[in-house]
Design a protein that fits this description.
Blueprint (H helix, E strand, L loop, with lengths): L3 E7 L4 H10 L6 E8 L5 H8 L4 E3 L9 H14 L4 E4 L8 H6 L4 E5 L11 H8 L3 E8 L9 E8 L6 H24 L3 E4 L2 E4 L4 H4 L1 E2 L4
Parallel strand pairs: 1-2, 1-4, 2-3, 4-5, 7-10
Antiparallel strand pairs: 5-6, 6-7, 8-9
The chain binds 5-O-phosphono-beta-D-ribofuranosylamine.
Length: 217
C-alpha cells in the first residue's frame, strides 16, 4: 500500500511534528511526511525536519503583506508540488481563509489543545482551570472555515489534578497530543475515518473507543 503523503504546517517548536516524524519512522505506519512548511524561518520545527531528512519550505506571510490569497497560493503550490494528500496543522499560527480550507476540504486536519467544542481559541489550559472542569484534553478534527471547528476524528481526555496550574495541565495535555495525532493520522490513512456530515465515522463500529485515547496517567 502506498503511504499517505502528509504536509505538516508549523510556526514554532514543532513537538507535534516530532511525534508525527517518530510515528512515520515505523515501517508499518501508513503515512509519510512529504513536506514540512513553516510561515516562520526560525521555527524550531524546521530543524527537527532537517534532522529527519524531510523536505522543508518557508512561506512567510510577511512576504505577502496584505495579500492573504497570495500567501495561501504560495503555500498551496508548495504543498501540491510535494504531492501532499493530507495537511496536518501542528501549531500553525495563521488563520486560513475559507477559500484555502474549502480547496483542502476533508484533506486538512488540526490538533487543538482542548476537548472541543469547549475552549476554542488560545489559552485553553488557563481557561479550563478557571472554569473548573475536571477533565481537559485535546482534539484532532477536520478543518472547517470557522476557527477550531469541524468533524472530530479523535480526542484524548486527561484529568485536571489538584494543584495544577496552566503549565502543569498544559504539559499533561501536550503528552496526550503526541499520542493522539499519530493515532488520528493512522485512522485517516487507513481509510477508517470517514466524514459523514458533521461527524466522523470510524470504521468497524466502535466509534467512541476507536477514536479516543486515554494514555496511562
Ligand atoms: C499544541 O498545543 C497544539 O495543540 C496547538 O499548538 C501547540 C503546538 O505545539 N495547536 P508544538 O509546536 O507542536 O510543540
Amino acid at each position: 500500500m502506498p503511504k499517505l503523503k502528509l504536509g505538516v504546517l508549523i510556526s514554532g517548536r514543532g513537538s507535534n511534528l516530532q511525534a508525527l516524524i517518530d510515528a512515520c519512522a515505523a515501517p508499518d505506519f501508513p503515512a509519510e511526511i512529504a513536506l514540512v512548511l513553516s510561515n516562520k524561518a526560525d521555527a524550531f520545527g524546521l530543524e527537527r525536519a532537517g534532522r529527519a531528512g524531510i523536505p522543508t519550505a518557508v512561506v512567510s506571510h510577511r512576504d505577502h503583506p496584505g495579500d492573504k490569497p497570495g500567501f495561501e497560493a504560495a503555500m498551496d503550490a508548495a504543498l501540491r508540488g510535494a504531492g501532499v494528500e493530507l495537511i496536518c496543522l501542528a501549531g500553525f499560527m495563521r488563520i486560513l481563509s475559507e477559500g484555502f480550507v474549502e480547496r483542502w476540504r476533508d484533506k486538512l486536519i488540526n490538533i487543538h489543545p482542548s476537548l472541543l467544542p469547549s475552549f476554542k481559541g488560545l489559552d485553553t489550559h488557563a481557561r479550563a482551570l478557571a472554569t473548573g472542569v475536571r477533565f481537559h484534553g485535546c482534539t484532532v478534527h477536520f478543518v472547517r472555515p470557522a476557527m477550531d471547528d469541524g468533524p472530530i476524528v479523535a480526542q484524548a481526555a486527561v484529568p485536571v489534578l489538584p494543584g495544577d496550574d496552566a503549565h502543569a495541565l498544559g504539559d499533561r495535555v501536550l503528552e496526550s497530543e503526541h499520542a493522539l495525532y499519530p493515532h488520528a493520522v493512522r485512522l485517516i490513512a487507513e481509510g477508517r475515518a470517514r466524514v459523514d456530515g458533521d461527524v466522523v465515522r470510524i470504521e468497524n463500529g466502535a466509534t467512541v473507543l476507536e477514536s479516543t485515547i486515554n494514555p496511562p496517567l
